[in-house]
Amino acid sequence: MAVTAAEQATLQWIETHESDLVVLLQRLVSVPSVVGSEGACQAGVAEIMRGCCDTVDVWEPDPAWLDRHPAYFHPGTNFAGRPNVVGAIRGRGGGRSLILNAHVDVVDPGPAEAWTHDPWSGAVVDGKLYGRGAVDDKAGLAAMLFAARCLRELGVSPDGDVLLESVVDEEWGGGGTLATLQRGYRADAAIVF
What would the CATH number be for the domain defined by 14-73+83-192? Predict the structure, then answer.
C-alpha cells in the first residue's frame, strides 16, 4: 500500500522530533508525582496541553461522588491538589471520537539506594531512560502529548474529537478515570496507556 503525502509528512515530523519525545518524557519523570502529590506534574501537563489542544479542563475529582460509585473501592480519598487534566482537539465533525488516557500518579520509589539512577532523574544511559513512572505511565502520557503536538504543528484536523486524559489515582483505585466520566467525557473508542 502506498504511503500518502500526509502520512509521509507525519513520519518525517516524527523522525525530525524524536529527540523531543525523549526530552518530554524526561521532563515528566523529573517531576515527582507519587500518589497524593500529583499536582505539580499535572500543572506541567496542563501547560503542555495548552500548546497543542483547543481546550484544557483542569479539575479535582469529587470524592463524595466517587465514594458512591460502585466501581470505586478506595472511599475517603482526598483529591485536594490532585487535579485531572483533559485536553480536547476538536475535529471537523462527522468522524468518530477517541480518548487517549494515561495516569500521572506513581508508587513511592522507596529508598534511593535501591535505584541504579535517581528515580526522578530521567537519565538516559545506553539508550534506556530511567526513572519512576518512565514506563508506567509517563511514557504513554508523553506519547499522547507528542501525537497532539504533531497534529497541531502539521495542521491536521481529525474528523472526530480527540480527548487527552491525564488522570490521577490510577494506582489506588482508578478514581481519576471515573471522575472523567462524571465530568461528561465520552468517546466512541478509548486507548488506555
Answer: 3.40.630.10
